[in-house]
C-alpha cells in the first residue's frame, strides 16, 4: 500500500470532490471481477471513487485496506459509503510485434480531451475571424429598387 503525505492527500481529496463512483461493491464483496474492474479504472483515471453498499464502518475500513493492499494503491479518503483510492498509472509493456504493426500517429491527432478542446477552440476562432473579415451580406431588397435612393414618398 502506498503512503501519501498530508499535502498529497489534501490535493487528491480536492481533485476527487467532483468525481462520481466508477465501481460499486455490493453483497458479494471484493470478488476477482470487482478487483479487475477497479484495476482498469485506476489504470485509466489514477483517482477513483468506489461505492460500498450494505456494510458497517469497520467492514468498509477493512475492505479499503484489503483493496489498497491488493492493488498497491493508496487510500485517500473514506466518507460514508464512498472510498477514494489513488494509484499512479502503470506503464504498459508492449510486445515488439504490436509495436511493429502499429501505424504512426499524425501530428494533428489529438492526444487527450484537453488537446481536442484546444484544437476545436482554435478552429472556431479561425472561422469567426474569417467571417468577420468578409464584407457584409447584401440586403434582400428587390433589384432595381434601391431603398436608400431617396424616392420615398413620391
From TrEMBL:
The residue ranges of the CRM domain are 2-98
MF term (GO), any: RNA binding
Question: What UniProt keywords apply to this chain's record, in alphabetical order?
Answer: RNA-binding
Extent of Low complexity compositional bias: 105-129, 137-154
| Entry-linked Pfam families | CRS1_YhbY
Residue ranges, annotated region (Disordered): 89-154
Q: Which PANTHER family match?
A: RNA-BINDING PROTEIN YHBY
Q: What is this protein called?
A: CRM domain-containing protein
Species of origin reads Thauera terpenica 58Eu
Q: What is the lineage of its organism?
A: Bacteria, Pseudomonadati, Pseudomonadota, Betaproteobacteria, Rhodocyclales
